Amino acid sequence: MTLEKRITGLWSVDNLYAPGAMEDILVVFLPSGEGWLYFAHPCQNIVEKFIWNIDSLNLLHVRGTTSSLYYDVDEDHELAKDSYLDKNSDVIIHEIKVEVSVEFTPRGENEVISFSKPLWGSDDKFALVHRDFDRIIPPIFDL
């Protein structure tokens, strides 16, 4: 199977461990070459949409397209006015080595994807959630 096919799907940092964390970092790679990073937290949600490709040396390249930030707080909360949708993204990550392997996690054996550079903060490793593309849709926020 090609690297392009192996990395497609919905991946989660939380799936490496056990359920119950208050936040999660998700990364999605769609077969179309689109994807997104989603920082999901009870009060703050950030989505970085991107396009991706694998070059002839099997290195991943990610270029952000749009960035969204949503604070899930009451309308009159001071953070509510700082929410935004679909600003230009400045995410650019080139020449990322990617490894997909099967590892034992608290959820059992799972496919795990590791990157030579962090995709979010210090997160460079994610476990597969699923590859059911009909169920993978970008997060939508109401401002």
Q: What is the typical, i.e. mean, pLDDT?
A: 91
Q: Poorly predicted ranges (pLDDT <50, ≥5 residues)?
A: none
> Helix and strand succession?
HEEEEEEEEE
Instruction: Count the DSSP helices.
Output: 1
Q: What does the overall shape look like?
A: globular
Query: What fraction of the residues are assigned to beta strands by DSSP?
Result: over 45%
Got a strand count? 9
Helix content, binned percent: under 10%
In whole angstroms, how far apart are the ends?
A: 42 Å
The class by helix and strand makeup works out as mainly beta
Return Rg in Å. 16 Å
- Could you describe the largest sheet, including whether it forms a barrel? 8 strands, antiparallel, barrel
Strand order of the largest sheet: 1-2-3-4-5-7-8-9
Describe how the helices and strands are arranged.
Layout: H1 3-7, E1 9-12, E2 24-29, E3 34-40, E4 44-54, E5 59-71, E6 84-88, E7 92-105, E8 108-115, E9 125-130
Antiparallel strand pairs: 1-2, 1-9, 2-3, 3-4, 4-5, 5-6, 5-7, 7-8, 8-9
Task: Note the main attributes of this structure.
globular, 8-stranded antiparallel beta barrel, 1 helix, mainly beta, 143 residues
In short:
The protein has 143 residues and is mainly beta. Helix content is 3%, strand content 52%.
Could you walk me through the main structural features you see in this protein, from its secondary elements to its overall organization?
This protein has 143 residues and is mainly β. Helices cover 3% and strands 52% of the residues. It contains 1 helix and 9 strands, in the order H-E-E-E-E-E-E-E-E-E. It has one helix spanning 3-7; strands at residues 9-12, 24-29, 34-40, 44-54, 59-71, 84-88, 92-105, 108-115, 125-130. Strands 1-2-3-4-5-7-8-9 form an 8-stranded antiparallel β-barrel. The longest helix has 5 residues, at 3-7. The model has no long low-confidence stretch (mean pLDDT 91).
